[in-house]
Design a protein that fits this description.
heterodimer, A: 137 residues, alpha+beta, Archease, Possible Chaperone, Chain: A, domain 1, five-stranded antiparallel beta sheet, 2 helices, globular, B: 482 residues, eight-stranded mixed beta sheet, 14 helices
Amino acid sequence: MKRYEYFEATADVGLKAYGKNLNDAFENAGVAIFNIISDTSNIDALKEIEFEITSEDEVSLLYDYLEELLFYHEVEFMLFSEFHVEIDGNLHLKAKIKGEEIDWNKHERKTEIKAITFHKMDVKKTDCVELQAIVDL
Amino acid sequence: MSIKDEIKKVRDNVYEIPGTYNKSMRASGRFYIADEYLDELEEGAVEQIVNVSCLPGVQRYSIGLPDIHFGYGFPIGGVAAFSLRNGIVSPGGVGFDINCGVRLIKSNLTLEDIEEHLDELTEKLFENIPSGVGSKGKIRLEKDEINDVLDYGAEWAVNNGYGWPEDLEVLEENGRMVDADSSIVSDKAKKRGIPQLGSLGSGNHFLEVQIVDEIFDEKVAEVYGLEKGMIVIMIHSGSRGCGHQVCSDYLRIMDKAYKKYKINISDRQLACAPLDSKEAQDYIQAMAAAANYAWANRQMMTHWIRETFEEVLGKSAKDMEMDIVYDVAHNIAKLETHKVFNREEEVLVHRKGATRAFGPGREEVPEKYREVGQPVLIPGTMGTASYVLCGTETAMEETFGSTAHGAGRILSRSKAKKDFDADEITKDMASKGIRIKATSKHVIKEEAPGAYKDVDSVVRVSDSTGIAKLVAKVRPLSVCKG
């Protein structure tokens, strides 16, 4: 199964992330985000950040989670490549994300993500889970 | 039936979607677009004009400007004013990059003065003004100092040695919205703002050394201090992660608010709250604080640009008369007085990808420009011309004193990456005498001029419909991209 893919949105870029369950799909969405900003294959998992969030529904949880990734990227000046996510039945998410401090001599410098949008944001659950988001560049 | 079949022509380059198109509309939609571009206009953008016209308290028209394209919730190139009695405020009507804007700095230099230094100037500007994804500003704020930046904007910058006191006279709002309240801004927004203050950003943001190529209106150009052959500098930048976080914070808050206040919206990105609610008042104060951050940011970069010119050319910035012409915000919401059905009324004007274009006589326009109307700065895309226009009486009457803000993207970034080659673009620009420095080849491809609508057409429609009048054309000599 594909972990994630991108689709076109005029000024910006859309992503779909897949997983066998919600945790899995959220983890793959993290990889998709950092392959817009840089190339995760070249980001070593040297330092770990942990965070927890609770939201009112699954779509909001996806929004809050992706925003949180951008927040730690900017504030810790880090790029991430490994994502471990646990979501419980009360829409409470625990994440451990691993990466390293930005070094533009080492890391590929692609595009800045300004923000996550609610536009066409979706969490689809069938046999597997499919997430959809459009990011504002 | 397509929504575009409902469009009626009002006059050349001006169209209307009648308020009778659907039952929820509280006003008609009105938009300005080149007649020949009407077919190409995305249906989605027209639908967004209609969606905005359905919001409570909308006044007169939901407006689309000549660079209108699909945005999130509100279209980009969109203007809507709301009544203070029953209207709303929506973060989606301002956008993620609060007070993204443009500043123009003039000089007494000519091409002859800088030609042989242009390579060095480009290198040093790129070095001295941090840009690109994951870039930090050059200064490190003390923790509480961010509150002063948010409360005082460009005034904070000038008081801390970035620029000249007289700079403040020629910034929209004098570079500081007094409604700002840093205590309303989240810690997350402050944390994102602290390391990035004094940085250009990425994407379509730029810093250009330009030359005044053509004057369309000698009288107004003289008032603005512009003449043909003059070297000028243009900055296009915003409020960085700080403003993006404020927008995100309030999108979430408004997402709960619109349900609480039972406002019908057709798109989650239109989430809003009644103007007399706490949520709305908090957003207005936090947005003003983020706007102040952007003015401080552009002010600091102005200081480093002057320092760089001093270093390379060996003259003082004062001797080179590197005065600011003007600084405009193109993503903002403001309380302004406008004529609504022959009555002067205070309304909250949302401008998303729209430039204020106040005409002659308005007291918000700096005194030295008041007689001719405010300068309107419309940036082109990488390697293409940009324009200076002036605000007009027609804009006051028709568009709440607003006009277009730029070219408007037509190709997605991924398509641009496939269609264009960075080296070829750089070579093509070099053949036109334009130097380019960018943090990566990705940004050169994504920002290829061919990925944007023709800015010439956007300003031509602004001019011909009268919602701003052409004053001068500037073209780039050197481009720094994040």
